[in-house]
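User: Predict the complex with zinc ion.
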Amino acid sequence: MGTQLFARGAEPGKCNDWLNVESPDMVMEIHRAYFDAGSDAVLANTFGANRYALARHGYADNASEINRAGAQVARTAAGEQRYVLGDIGPTGDFLEPLGTLRADQVREAFVEQVRALREGGVDGFIIETMTALDELSLALEAARAAGGGLPVFASLSFDKGGVGFRTMMGVDVPTAVSRMIALGADAIGFNCGTASLDEYVELSETYVAAVRSAKKKVLVFAEPNAGKPELVDGQAVYKVSPAEFAAACGRILKAGIHILGGCCGSGPEHIQAVAKALRA
Ligand SMILES: [Zn+2]
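Assistant: Here is the predicted structure with zinc ion placed in the model:
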């Protein structure tokens, strides 16, 4: 979504989520492009629409309005045959004692977002790009408590360092998997990060192995970026072709993943290549 909004003239550093209210046609056009490409589901443009993330742009008190509008525009694009997940991203701050955010306030902010997404007509929720387990847990609790029984997907961002895959906050895959299962996520997975396509395949294998050893039934999803970003004139650019992306998604599927999507840099042309290759 971010990549597509910037390509249509949205300004980096401004509030992408406010566009649900200010330019719903632009957001609608992006959803439609992905459905036309073969997507079964899109994420509402609400990744940064919790009141803490919105406060950076002066929109904290518009959280409900922004989430409702984002859900509605995606619902309209999806119709009744395809799916909309309300997108729930991080606050961008740390919880106590590392930071200043209190757990009860953060949970309340996620509850506010979940309620408004439901009012806007989503089919479920996806908590993504999380790096801290405490924040992920609060978002999952909020979606469980206020989500009306709709499915909840939960995802963290991993990078591969010297000690294997970890989030920025040092969480490894088995720890993440067991926590997400314990908190009742319907589908668990990973998204974003700075991995290469080969590393996303390896991460998928690591996830599936962790789920197998947890011995619990849960769906596993993968939302890789279109490869590693390269910095060009200070902008992150994704150079992986649709064919390369689709080939990697085929390997990810073989690793045992149930649900596939694309994160940064994966345009409608990438999703179209995946749909063509994997539905053949
Ligand atoms: Zn991403």
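Residues 197-214 form the longest helix (18 residues).
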